[in-house]
Amino acid sequence: MKLNLNGKDIEVPAEAAEKRLVEFLREDLDLTGAKNACDIGACGACTILVDEEPLKICVKRVKDVAGHRVLTIEGMAAEDGTLHPLQQAFVEAGAIQCGFCTPGMVLTAHAFLLKHPDPTRDEIRRAISRNLCRCTGYQQIIDAIERAAPFYRETNIHEHTAATPR
Amino acid sequence: MKPMVPKSWRNDAVAKVTGRTKYTDDLKFANLLHAAPVYSDFVHARINSIETAGAEKYPGVVRVITARDVPGANRVGQIRKDYRIFADDKIRYNGDVVALVVAESRDIAIRASRLVRVEAIPLPALLDPEEALQDKVLIHEDLYTNLVVTHKVRRGDVDEGFRKADLVIEEDFRTQFVEHAYMETEAAVCVPRSDGVTEVYGSMQHPFSTRRFVAACLGTPLGRVEVVGTPLGGGFGGKDDTAAIVCARTALAARLLNRPVKTMYRRDWSIRESYKRHPYHIHYKMGLTRDGLITAVQCRMLADAGAYCSVTPWVTWRSTVQCCGPYLVDNVHCDVLGVYTNNVVTGAMRGFGSPQVNFAIEQLVEIAAAKLGLSGIEFRRRNMVRQGCLTITGQRLDGHKVAMGEVLDAVLKETDYERNLGRCAFGKSDSDEWYGIGLAMSYRGVSLGAEGADLCAAAIDVQPDGSILLDVGVHENGQGLESAMSILCAGELGVDLRHIHYRRASTSSIPDSGTTVASRGTIMGGGAVLLAARDLKDKISAAVAEKLRCEPAQVRFAHGRVEGRDSSDSLSFDEAIREMWQARLVPRGFGVFRSPKVTWNDESGQGDAYFTWVYGCQAVELTVNRKTGKVRLLRAVAAHDVGRAVNPEMVKGQFYGGMAMSTGYALHEEVGMKDGKIATTNLNTYRIPRSTDLPEMTAIIVENPDPASPSGAKSIGEPTNEILAPAIANAIYNATGRRHFSLPIRTTSP
Ligand code: FES
Ligand code: FES
After folding, report:
1. B566: pLDDT strictly greater than 90
2. I need a surface site. Which of B48, B106, B164, B608 has the fewest CB within 10 A?
3. Would you call B160 exposed, middle or buried from its count of C-beta atoms within 10 A (0-12, 13-18, 19+)?
4. Does residue B451 have a pLDDT over 60?
5. CA-to-CA distance for B744 and B277, rounded, in angstroms?
6. pLDDT of A166
7. CB distance A94–B479 less than 8 Å?
């Protein structure tokens, strides 16, 4: 079984097919950016992107993403560690408190901005409504997404995540 | 000097936004075992036996641990040692843990946990606090009563006060159980070290109180337990007793099996077992004169403490001190009671005994004003605390700016309140969306007050190359405390922030500095950091004064330099440090901040309860749909006097987060209880606010640096989370003409 993970093709052993995806990433691959906070698809802390669509992986199996392009938070920044402009916006807007929701939030916002690079605040609010955050009241998260939007308008985004195959 | 700080700065932001931050469950150790708690079906029962053989035989299970295996104390607590690490004699609530299954994998531990059998004789469950007060059934027999605590305020003569009144009003209010719903559930990893120390990593707010719990359970000295501060996925007051007990059980397993053990809580365990915000039943009677002055307040509050004491005496004490809100009343008779029940345990939660009281009193003043034909604002102005006044506990408010009027004015102006009040529907408009605006305000005692002794330590160690290690006894809960401490340190030493590295906190490297609760982090930690920095500067000054051709007292620290009287005599900070090391002097600063004295008399309920106070006001605009009753929040505005905003963007984050949580308190959140069992055990049924439930929010930071705080900063974490619920209730009244006396507010057919 193959999948493209953060820009690299990887081979997944067949016996991992039935594993829960969140455990596979966190335990087997040590990609612990995706969090498991509810286990039932209710909070968004485990969100990753599959073919640029947000997916809550606590309720998915490894085989569900076989053959697809998977982006986790670990694949957002450039290889040299330079933050993606969206991540930079989160830092600058004060959108991070405890940080537990942050990976899922950033990825959900990334998928949204790829499709809607010129959103209103209300549209942003709706776009992240399935990702829960208990710390921030979402205000500065929305600020961050708004702040990052021009980048998505101006740039061919596919050149900018470390994860995209080039 | 104010350091050069980027607009928003956090020492941990980059690690968090890249997913690299390692929270407890992200930590891995070789040979790691996994543990799962076992609950019983009972709510109140006497235990006959706990049958573990079935689980022990399950392949992959290493051991099943019960109360019998605890070498030290099985009963722990910060105030009263009644909290069981494992249920021993009785089940007192449905979240009591009877055993811990330890296995080679988490899945195995969970599966085997179903094989543990508890035999017990059911006892009548006390679920109603009033009934529990009658002591017909006892929850802790050894205490001879279910009463946990009573506090009172006795001031003046209420009978006389009511005689003088032209109008007397009486109302009843009720509030609900609330779950903290931190996004990260409880977790612990404990590692038995070969030197006999048990290392604890955990999702907990209070390394020192966790260490006390763990050491007590293991029966070892404090020095044999090292609790390492671990990035925390939210706390809000909720990661104290329960989180510490999760650490204690895990540590016990690690010690017994001599292998690292991890316990990672499932959400349903977390909601079932962890303590909640206290539900209150509050009765108020208020006497008023025709010209709008309060002559007397009589009140009784009954708080449901659940099965164990936790910090109920402290929570209810704050309710007592602040029982009249920010208003001046000469005659007060207040009784606050906490009582054991067989409901889920209640304890600390952001706001700590204030949100309940404010929900009541901030509606009561509006009810009073309306009956007197006054505006709520005018009524508040006539009665609110002011500079130099005496509070209801006889404390003179001076020595700091009493900013009640200032924050009120800021909110009125920002919301155009008076004009918008004229637009309110009061249930009498033909439009489908009834508009309402409402506000609420509070004052709040800072830090622990007379609840406990308060000190905090900080150490600054400058390395030979001039880089700085900062270690402070307060804990990062996600609020940005490490960043605030680093900014204060850099500012005082006149060095760039990049010089400073905040040390990963450990209970083995810094004196016990109590807990990061009561919004005390910035004021206590900041005080300690500044004292440590001054201590360090004294040492550096003494060492380099001669070289700088001045007296030590004349040495100045700014812009990364250490200067004499004349700035031509100067060294870079790094050079000054090198000089010290060459002279075999260690550049180490140490500081202990002790909060100023507070006093309290239990009999009269009088005293200087807190060493300083903060002032806040919040308003909300909303609409209520005439047909469906659906509430839509349009905008929320808050003004708080924070003393000094050390890191303004983070301070704003506290505003927004607190207001969001209050919105949940007002409109959505309630731990559903059925026959003593929690029905809402995950985030699909326990509904915290989503982005679409919240309005745009405006944060107005008011700064009146406080002389009682070395940094000038006071606190902000909790004040933001204690008044939006009554503001919403008032706005809903102004929209619909209907009062809501219990939480959460249900408007579905106004
Ligand atoms: S952990 Fe997957 S949605 Fe909550
Ligand atoms: S920052 Fe803590 S949950 Fe979002």
Report:
1. no
2. B48
3. middle
4. no
5. 13
6. 38
7. no
- Identify the CATH homologous superfamily for domain A2-75: Beta-grasp domain (3.10.20.30)
Which pair of structure tokens corresponds to residue B717?
Answer: 């974490």
Amino acid at B2: K
Q: Which atom of ligand 2 is nearest to the CA of B234?
A: 2
How far is residue B567 from each of residues A79, A132, B356, measured CA to CA in Å?
Answer: 45, 54, 57
Q: Quote the strand ranges of B93-249, DSSP E.
A: 97-103, 117-122, 147-155, 167-174, 187-192, 198-202, 225-228
Q: Name the least confident of B162-166, B308-312, B450-454.
A: B450-454
Asked whether residue B10 carries a pLDDT value surpassing 80, the answer given is: yes
* Contacts with A102 from chain B: Cβ below 8 Å: 16-17, 19
**A6 C-alpha vs ligand 2 centroid, how far in Å?**
24
A130 lines ligand 1 (CB under 6 A): no
Question: Structure tokens of B341?
Answer: 């029940």
Domain-wise residue ranges, chain A: 2-75, 85-159
Contact present, B206 and B238 (Cβ < 8 Å): no
Query: Distance, CA A67 to ligand 1 centroid (Å)?
Result: 23
Determine the distance separating the centroid of ligand 2 and the alpha carbon of B388, expressed in angstroms: 40
**A137 vs B12, B267, B694: nearest CB:** B694
CA B154 – CA B289 distance, rounded (Å): 21
CATH of A85-159, one of 2.40.30.10, 3.20.20.70, 1.10.1740.10, 1.10.150.120: 1.10.150.120
Nearest residue to B385 via CA among B401, B372, B367, B369? B401
Give the per-residue pLDDT at B4.
47
**CA dist B81 to A64, B77, B145, B239, B723, Å?**
50, 4, 16, 18, 33
At B324-379, the pLDDT tens digits run 999 999 999 999 999 999 999 999 999 999 999 999 999 999 999 999 999 999 99
Measuring from each residue's beta carbon to the nearest atom of ligand 2, which residues come in under 6 Å? A 96-101, 133-136; B 183, 234, 478
The closest ligand to the CA of A135 turns out to be 2
Q: Which of A32, A102, A129 sits opposite B17 (nearest CB)?
A: A102
| First-residue to last-residue Cα distance in chain A | 22
Residue-level pLDDT at B1: 41
Nearest CA to ligand 2 atom 4: A133
Structure tokens at B470: 């900062």
Nearest CA to ligand 2 atom 3: A133
Which residues of A are less than 8 Å from B20 in CB distance?
33, 74
Element (H, E) at B699: strand B696-702
Give chain B's mean pLDDT: 94
Tokens of A88: 């930079």
Partners of residue A47 on adjacent β-strands: A56
Q: Please tell me if the CB atom of residue A41 comes closer than 6 angstroms to any atom of ligand 1.
A: yes
Q: What is the ipTM of this complex?
A: 0.97
Residues of B in contact with A126 (CB under 8 A): 691-692
Task: Tell me, in angstroms, the distance from the centre of ligand 2 to residue B714's CA.
Answer: 23
Residue B420 CA to its chain's centroid (Å):
34
Using a CB-CB cut-off of 8 Å, the residues of chain A touching B481 are none
Mean pLDDT for B684-711 is 95
Would you state the torsion angle of the CA atoms of residues B232, B234, B239, B242, taken in this order, to the nearest 10 degrees? -100
Q: Is the torsion defined by CA of B748, B730, B165, B443 positive or negative?
A: positive
Domains and CATH numbers, chain B: 17-123+186-264 (3.90.1170.50), 280-449+601-736 (3.30.365.10), 455-594 (3.30.365.10)
Query: Which of A42-56, B220-234, B463-477, B672-686 bottoms out in mean pLDDT, i.e. has the lowest?
Result: B463-477
Residue A59 CA, closest ligand 1 atom number:
2
Q: Residue B27 has which token pair?
A: 């930590």
pTM over 0.90: yes
